[in-house]
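Memo to structure team: turn this sequence into structure tokens by end of day. - J.P.
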Amino acid sequence: MSTLSESRGMGPNAPMSAIGYLIGGLLALVLVPLAPIILVAWLAVKVAAAAGGEREGAV
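Reply from structure team:
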């Protein structure tokens, strides 16, 4: 005798999709304007590490 109900299968969930698109849109609105700043900071760190003679991945 089985105590589990029969699986109903997987299907689309519109409310969860809407929340995912909303979060993705808000994340894009925040990250797109910050991308140039992040890129400049990353390049500055790489240039400073190269000028200091550090090897990439050195601990």
